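Q: I'm writing a short explainer about Large ribosomal subunit protein bL21m for a general audience and would like to include a description of its predicted shape. Could you first generate the structure from this sequence?
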Amino acid sequence: MLTKSLKRALLDSRWPMPPTFLLPWAAGLTTVSHSTAASNLPPPLVSGVSNISRQREALQQDQRAPPRASSGPLASLPELPAANATSSPPALSQSVRELLPVLQAQGPHYIVAHLYDRPYLLTQGDTLRLPFHMKDVEPGDILRLDRASIIGSRDYTLKAATAPPALNQSTGKVSYVDDRLFVCRAVVMGVESDPLHVEEKTKRRQRKVKRVKSKHRHTILRIKEVRVRGLEEVE
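A: Of course. Here's the predicted structure. Afterward I'll give you a sentence or two in plain language.
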């Protein structure tokens, strides 16, 4: 009977809290604060918190510190040579040294110049009509033709060194004379156009006729200078 009245008194909110000596299960209650302050934590937990704070401080100092120079194998690598370093031009042969002054003294000279792998026999004062339109040039521009396979006069001829036949057949390349030995300049005179040409194309058993229009343009060059340089200019 006493037990039921006691439970009813505890459940009723209007009644105040009974004294603790009447509650046998409240004998183990304590009044210690459960805050997370360091003074209230047990010794092992306090030491763990201090270690975490030290690690955070050390990480912040490492991030603020400037980067150190690496002392590994990368620091001892040798310096690479400059990319624009060019080798010296090849020396002239003894036969060229002996006969070049003779070729220079005898004029006029002619040259077999190559433009887009096409050879043209030229002398000073000639007018060259190219079978194509040269891009990025305007009338009045001066062009230097630095690819030639033959330079000659009335009695002397200077040819480029012949490459092996297997190399010429496989690559289709032509050997050229050293561009230090001659000077060939051309002036762009203008551009000429062919008359309009209309060609009709048909197919067998078809009534459709296709008309193709073509009007080619040609660049006109005038050879301004053709001469052979001396040994003093070459060297």
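A: For your explainer, you could say: The helical segments are 2-11, 43-64, 94-105, 165-171, 231-234.
Q: Perfect, that's easy to follow.
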